[in-house]
Each structure stands twice: as structure tokens, then as C-alpha cells.
Amino acid sequence: MASHAACIQRVAPPCFEASLANKSKTISPFSVNITRRKRRSSGVRCSLVDFIGGDLVKPDIGRWLEDVEKHKAIAIYTPHEGGYEGRYLNRLKEQGYYFLDISARGLGDPETTLLNPYPVCPAHLGKQPIARWYYPPEVDYRLSALPPSAKGLVVWIIEAKVLSKSELQFLALLPSLRPSVRVIAECGNWRKFMWKPLAEIAELAAQE
Questions:
Q1: pTM, whole model, 2 decimals?
Q2: pLDDT for 162-198, tens place per residue?
Q3: Which of 199, 187, 102, 109 is nearest to 142 (CA)?
Q4: What is the domain range of residue 127?
Q5: CB of 116 within 8 A of CB of 141?
């Protein structure tokens, strides 16, 4: 009985051998996904910008500074992820410009807010009398506070895409009314950082 039992223990059952054969023939889904990924990634092409970073490559900074001084009012288009416009903003700071950051949402009439004293009605909550406070013009107030070494004031307008055509036309004419003022308006988004003269976006040159 002992020898017979030993023989039974040495002989492997057929179901076990079949399972081993099936395991050697089957392919795990993980390996299939890897092969598919390899096939899909074979067509990807990388450039130098992908390894260094698009926000670090600045071959157009010189043209950016020239266009700001030439046109004085620029419409910019930034990538959706943000961060690229800071490189161009810092270069203007290095030139000696000071900044006034304004959001186009809730700006009201740009001419009244930037060049004239404008009223503000605080919330009265139904118990206090309705009051009206007047604030100084945003551009003229900051121009008067600039140090003598400043080159000028840059009015950087965020979300300028919500402004109407007439409001954009006024912003394009603002540097002619205040010669030491430059206007940068964020008018939309694009795959890379790009800019155009604001007068061209507002169709001001065509009307002239």
C-alpha cells in the first residue's frame, strides 16, 4: 500500500497539466494593454519645447517689447493652463513699468472708471440710508503716484473677451489720451502665447 500510495503521489493529475498548458498559452490583459499603448505611442513626435518647457523658451521677448512700444495697446491670447503670460509681464517690469490689474467683469464703463471720478453705492441692507461714494479715476490716480524713475503704467485687463467692441476701441485709444500708459488686454485663449494690436482686434483701423 505504501508503494502504491507513493506512485499515486508521483503521478500528476491530468487536470493540473491542462491548467499549466492553458496558463502558458493565455495572455494577461495587462500585456495586451502594453502592446496597444506601444502601438499608439509609436506615432508621437516630440520637440525641444516638450523637454525644456514652453514657458522657459522665450525667443520672441524682443519682438514682444518692440510691439508694446510700437502699438501701445496689445491684445493677448494665452494657453488655457495659464502661467505663460507671467514671463512677458516680468519683462515689462524689468523695463520699469508699473502695473494696474483690472478684471473686465464688473468694470462698468471703462472711460468713466479709468479717467473720471466714478460713484460707488455701498450695500445699505435696508436699514442704513442709501449713500454714494466717489472714487478717483484709476489711471490718473496711479499715474500721479508713480515714482520719477518709472517708465510708465501698464493697464493689464483680465477677461477682456467680455467687453464690447466700443469698449475695446476706447482701450485701444487710451495710450493716445495718456501717453505714458500701455494697455494689455487678455482677449481669449490659444494653444500658445500670441498677441495682436488691440486696434486690429477692435476693428479700429478699418473705421479710420
A1: 0.69
A2: 999 999 999 999 999 999 999 999 999 888 888 999 9
A3: 102
A4: 59-200
A5: no
